Amino acid sequence: MDRIRIVGGNKLNGIIPISGAKNAALPLMIASLLTDETLILDNVPRLADVAQLQRILGNHGLDIMSKGKRPGDHEYQGQTLHISAANIIDTTAPYELVSKMRASFWVIAPLLARMHVAKVSLPGGCAIGTRPVDLLIMALEKLGAELQIDGGYVIARAPGGLTGAEIDFPKVTVSGTHVALMAATLAKGTTVINNAACEPEIVDVADCLNKMGAKISGAGTPRIVIEGVKKLHGARHTVLPDRIEAGTYAMAVAMTGGDVQLAGARPELLQSALDVLTEAGATITPNNEGIRVTRNGAGISPVKVTTAPFPGFPTDLQAQLMALMACAKGSSHITETIFENRFMHVQELARFGARISLDGETAIIDGIAKLRGAPVMATDLRASVSLVIAALAAEGETTVNRVYHLDRGFERLEEKLSACGATIERISG
Ligand code: EPU
């Protein structure tokens, strides 16, 4: 199994190109099931999760072609996928595939909307929490689907097709909103989603669905209205830049010091995180090409942060902020409100010497002057990258094990960081 070796202490200086967003690319690929025409997606990141979803969609009978580079494309430009769901040969998503990536459960929505039937394995829990799908099931039932659970599978039917309805989510859910949105595009009549997630990835998917002929308004607000249409058609869409990748590298620069341009990053997608970084002592300058992050001289100031749905501070940057605060001049508080068990990185950060204690859903971090490198590993994607951030600033050598978590969500991580002066390499085997 691959490992990453990092020798800490170097400042980061240079340009880091930001890839397409994983959490937009995945639902966009799934949306291709809604039409028998070709959906072309540009700037799809080359990630293990994308490859896994390609296998899952392939199992349903989709043809997926990845185009090479065109003249003038940047070396980090994501891939272009041509996805054709002209023939859906199988409406079952088996346990062996869904259990490897939770988001693949979302295929239930387009399969039900277009084929009126779907059999999809329940995804099960994961390292960051139990992550139930009750709200997704509730939304599909509201749209008229009959669902039953049998042998670990959700068996869904809508013999006459789905029908528009009012869906009130009792809590904000990204997965629930994606599923309701996709299902409602082909339902008869109007659907209203109340308390919808406002995440930029929802807006990106709604934009793409509208290009495919859907009639969606209000995406990006808590009330989304969808007028169902009979058929969707092919379209071409560019995946928006990854705000979590941008925020992660911004935290890394705040941690090591230096001066980095996050090329292609869009500040409005991560304003809450940029505000926290400014409070912590980094200088953030949005410009035409992205976001410039610098920290020179001054130390890191402690912060008090609570994760929240967009536009609040994202749970997907919580672990990275904790790594940064491990070296702050004072005591920080980070409260996690989205996932009940997203503190798996605390024990691993402690291996660097970080002083972190937990009080329910709040972590109290007492900053120390210097972390020290150590062998570490993590059980989820964002926790893994928090260890990379800690390692970049730590004295001495760190080995991050279980690198496959990083490969799920960070494209060419070690290349991007070493181009900015980090001592980082992948050790195969
Ligand atoms: N929830 C329920 N019932 C449901 C659905 C969700 O109780 O039916 C709960 C969850 O257990 C959680 C909360 O609601 O406590 C929010 O879950 P949400 O549905 O919003 O999250 P998700 O769609 O499963 C996506 C991202 C996550 C990101 C969260 C929150 C993708 C593929 N995943 O998950 O990303 O943390 O939204 O923003 O878009 C990651 O990229 O590392 C990652 C975990």
TrEMBL record:
Residues bearing the modification 2-(S-cysteinyl)pyruvic acid O-phosphothioketal = C126
**Where are the catalytic residues?**
C126
Q: What is any Pfam family matched here? A: EPSP_synthase
EC numbers listed for it are: 2.5.1.7
Which Gene Ontology cellular-component terms appear in the entry? cytoplasm
Pathway, per record: Cell wall biogenesis; peptidoglycan biosynthesis
- Binding residues for phosphoenolpyruvate: K22, N23
Catalysis: reaction(s): phosphoenolpyruvate + UDP-N-acetyl-alpha-D-glucosamine = UDP-N-acetyl-3-O-(1-carboxyvinyl)-alpha-D-glucosamine + phosphate
Chain ranges of the Enolpyruvate transferase domain:
8-417
Q: What class of enzyme is it?
A: transferase
Q: Which superkingdom?
A: Bacteria
Determine if Metal-binding is one of this entry's keywords: no
What CDD domains does UniProt report for this protein, alphabetically? UdpNAET
Keywords attached to this entry: Cell cycle, Cell division, Cell shape, Cell wall biogenesis/degradation, Cytoplasm, Peptidoglycan synthesis, Pyruvate, Transferase
Its predominant location is cytoplasm
InterPro entries, per database record? Enolpyruvate_Tfrase_dom, Enolpyruvate_Tfrase_sf, MurA_subfamily, RNA3'P_cycl/enolpyr_Trfase_a/b, UDP_GlcNAc_COvinyl_MurA
Molecular functions (GO terms):
UDP-N-acetylglucosamine 1-carboxyvinyltransferase activity
GO BP: cell division; cell wall organization; peptidoglycan biosynthetic process; regulation of cell shape; UDP-N-acetylgalactosamine biosynthetic process
- Location of the protein in the cell: Cytoplasm
Annotated residues for binding of UDP-N-acetyl-alpha-D-glucosamine: R102, R131, P132, V133, D134, L135, D316, I338
Question: Which family would the database say this protein is a member of?
Answer: Belongs to the EPSP synthase family. MurA subfamily.
What's its job?
Answer: Cell wall formation. Adds enolpyruvyl to UDP-N-acetylglucosamine.
What name goes with this protein?
Answer: UDP-N-acetylglucosamine 1-carboxyvinyltransferase
Where does this protein come from, organism-wise?
Afipia massiliensis
